[in-house]
Amino acid sequence: MAESPEVQAVETEDEYIHVRFRDPEGFKTIRTPDWATNAAQDVSAGAEVRTGEETGGDDWKVQSVLIEKHVGERKAREQAQKIVEKIES
Fold it and tell me: Are strands 16-20 and 27-31 parallel, antiparallel or unpaired?
């Protein structure tokens, strides 16, 4: 089983707290797929997941997780980590 990535940054913007796990510059494509959002909903209602295809490879990995702002940064970090573990395990 692969080890989950560490949180790199937590930023609050508009309606969401953006929990970034990987630098967006390391991806050639980033999307918000429905299947990942559906998986995230089990952990945090309203959450979205941005996945990306890595530059120089074919692997898709979680780039960031968006958690609704009302949750708060500490809880958003915890929920985002659970979402990444669920998707990437």
Answer: unpaired
What pLDDT shows up at residue 2?
Answer: 59
Separation of alpha carbons 43 and 7, rounded Å: 17
The pTM assigned to this predicted structure is 0.91
The full length of the chain comes to 89
Q: What is the CA radius of gyration of the chain?
A: 12
Q: Are 88 and 65 in contact (CB under 8 A)?
A: no
> ∠ CA 3-62-20 to the nearest 5 degrees?
95
By C-alpha distance, which of 87, 60, 77, 82 is closest to 17? 77
Residues lower than pLDDT 70 in the chain: 1-2
Q: What is the pLDDT of residue 1?
A: 47
Domain residue spans in the chain? 9-88
